[in-house]
Amino acid sequence: MNESKVVCLRQKDEIDDPLTDPLRSGAKRLVQQAMEAEFAAFLASHAELELPDGSQRIVRHGHDPVRPIQMGIGPVEVAKPKARDRGATTADERIRYASSILPKWARRTKSLDVLLPALYLRGVSTGDFQEVLTALLGKDAPNLSPAVIAAQEQMGRRVSALAPVDAAR
Fold it and tell me: What domain of life does the native source organism fall in (predicted)?
């Protein structure tokens, strides 16, 4: 008789958007398909390498652990395929697979790395950068502290200072 009649509504910081989940799952599928195609090309490029018994030297060896990549649509969890070099006797001669789509160190897309410092600077002038970043990327987005974004901005300035000046400008 003491049943609760309280209906759970959306949380305070949660954005209720019916398009986000299908878009995020579509982005996950696209990234996963692109990585699988890149991995298949890697295996094909090493297909001529064989062990003395005639079997392939480079083989698929499962996936790395799933990790979230922060994208414009929000966090998307992806798993990178792994390769195993069965013919290498030392670490120096081992052939390793390194994805160009999802480097080992990547946690965000490049477009977000460019966008975050600009949003941060805009937020500093208005005093509400954390609110803007939370609305854009979600409350659980990692590495969005002022110190991290300021360090990225400084790194961007150093890189642009080292870039050659275009004579046509």
Answer: Bacteria
Contact (Cβ atoms closer than 8 angstroms) between residue 85 and residue 94: yes
Residues 6 or more apart in contact with residue 42 via CB below 8 angstroms: 58, 83, 97
Provide the residue ranges of all domains of the chain, joining segments of one domain with +.
20-85, 110-162
What is the model's pLDDT at position 99? 87
64-76 per-position pLDDT tens digit: 888 888 877 778 8
Query: pLDDT tens for residues 35-47?
Result: 999 999 999 999 9
C-alpha–C-alpha distance, residues 66 and 78, integer Å: 5
